Amino acid sequence: MNRSFPQQFIWGSATAAYQVEGNNVNSDFWAEEHAEGSPYKDKSGDTIDHYSLYKKDIELMAKLGFKAYRFSIEWARIEPAKGHFSVSAILHYKDVLETCHAYGLTPVVALHHFSSPQWLMRVGGWSSPNIPELFAHYCEVVMKELGHLIPYVLTMNEVNLPVMLKEIFSKIGFVPPVGIDRESWVAPKWRQSAATLCGADPSQYFTFHMISDEKSIKLMKEAHKQSRAVIKKIHPETKVGFSMALPQIDSIPGGELLAKEKWNSYFLQFLDMMEEDDFFGLQNYTREIYGPNGQIQPDQHTEVTQMGYEYHPEALGKVVEEVAKYVTIPIMVTENGLATAHDKKREEFIQRALTSLHDCIEKGIEVIGYLHWSTFDNFEWQSGYGMHFGLIEVDRTTQERIPKNSAYLLGKVAKENKLEVNLEVR
């Protein structure tokens, strides 16, 4: 059965600067990797050297049939020291954008994808009362130089992820454990080391992933609003939004209230951020099921990905349907994918996820694009290089790019703007 998508539908894939560029030495994540006792499994190093190889990479995406490329601009490269803006970094990203246009790829640019400049930690990081102005000023510089080349921009990636990960991060020292006041909290040694490497006191050290309390969430929302205003003032034609990580939330009897609370925490509390946005970036990987005693973890009978998530491609359509109850602006799927060493599972995942997405479009929901995560196998933050999210394999000893069958599958869908399902979709 063939499923056609709307004209001008945006088909492509996504990366994040820190995960593919390599040697982002001025980033707070670089400090965390190199901190004494760091929980990171690997050091990013050169990653896949996309900073040097972007032209060949973009050419490859175009040859595969992709029509869009979502990537991030690294704040720590653009503004390596507070108030100092790198001309060479701006020119680099200008060439990345121009290369996208030359090969017919629509650029979708994230101005922040988790990583921040080390100097920001010296002024309080994302808990600083000045963060809205600091971030908006960075956005202003980028848009003045590059805005004419950017049709779609995400101010920030996955603004709700810190809330989702709060319990996990508490265990490794990202945020104070529940019940402990931040001011009286003593950070674990690896975070103290990371702060020192940033030239900051541990009390000042507050990364993007720590934005989970009411005060910092309010500051982050204001940072988005101020940056959106700056972007629109400089280049009104650019479509502005932000992205959120949203699992499908399910419940069994007795877990309905907890599931409702989770949806409020993960999504509803951020609705006021998008009141003047042009589109919403939706990112989905799995579902979460809640019972009377909390989240029900996958058992031995549940198929999971390398990340330990439940393998559930249809979660994408379910989340789009739920979000559409609250959102009136167009939805762009800015990330969707899975970590697996078995590319056949990725092919199946893409077909099932896109089938569920097409069902949403058939119901009248305005979905304007699908960007798969990720273009390449790359550096997966604390999980290092062991996770395989990519449509394209990379031999990191030679930096050779090897497209997988899933890349050709998605490229064919993009070229034809339709999905030919050749499996039994469950």
From TrEMBL:
**Keyword Nucleotide-binding listed:** no
Listed A to Z, the keywords are:
Glycosidase, Hydrolase
Q: Name one Pfam family in it.
A: Glyco_hydro_1
- Which branch of life, at top level? Bacteria
Q: Does the keyword Hydrolase apply?
A: yes
Q: Which InterPro entries match?
A: GH (IPR017853), Glyco_hydro_1 (IPR001360)
Family statement drawn from the similarity comment of this UniProt entry: Belongs to the glycosyl hydrolase 1 family.
* Protein name, entry field: Family 1 glycosylhydrolase
Q: What species was this sequence derived from?
A: Metabacillus halosaccharovorans
